Amino acid sequence: MSRVDYFNDPAAPPANSVVPSVTAVVCDDLGRLLLIHKTDNDLWALPGGGHDIGESVAETVVREVREETGYEVEVVAVTGLYTDPHHVMAYDDGEVRQQFSICFRARPIGGSLRTSEESKEVRWVQPADLDTLVIHPSMRLRIEHGLEPDRVQPYIG
Questions:
Q1: Are 17 and 95 in contact, with CB atoms under 8 Å apart?
Q2: Cβ contacts of residue 53 below 8 Å, gap of 6+?
Q3: What is the spatial distance between Cα 132 and Cα 6, in angstroms, rounded to a whole number?
Q4: C-alpha distances in Å from residue 137, one per residue of 57, 59, 124, 142
Q5: Domain that residue 32 falls in
Q6: Residue 157 belongs to a domain
Q7: 82-110: buried (b, 16+ CB within 10 Å) or exposed (e) per residue?
Q8: Structural domains of the chain, count
Q9: Catalytic annotation present for 67
Q10: Is residue 85 part of a domain?
Q11: Which of 1, 41, 55, 104 is the most buried (most CB within 10 A)?
Q12: Domain for residue 156, yes or no?
């Protein structure tokens, strides 16, 4: 299913749903960031997705990273809560979802790189190379917050 992201766009359709979701800032021992090239909007992003009934939010992080990248991770910290009502995602089935994402810092503990139905490419990226990739502004904000080494309090916005 394809999607269009609207961010601070007065022409955006009104939201008709909210789905709790997660993203994960996963860095390896070399300081590289794990990113996926998404199939639904053709943008680079942190791995993540919707929270399912019957799992904890930490289990959602682990499952989503595994499903989209092939890597097993351990959740380390919450880096931010992103609920901006001016960021909506319109899907081709008529759903228009308001952003509601909890971003976590996680560390890789196993697995190996692979793609999925949601990720046409998976890559470890040096933070200095992020500007070479097409990344949504909201995702860039999560990456920025997740890479801040001294961040103690999570971002709330």
A1: yes
A2: none
A3: 22
A4: 24, 26, 20, 9
A5: 3-148
A6: no
A7: beeeebbbbeeeeebbbbbbbbbbbebee
A8: 1
A9: no
A10: yes
A11: 104
A12: no
- Please identify which of the residues 59, 67, 72, 121 carries the catalytic annotation: 121
Q: How far is CA 55 from the centre of its chain?
A: 18
Strands (E), the chain: 3-7, 17-18, 21-26, 33-38, 44-45, 48-50, 71-82, 87-91, 96-98, 101-111, 119-125, 155-156
Distance CA 69, CA 47 (A): 7
One-letter identity of residue 41 = N
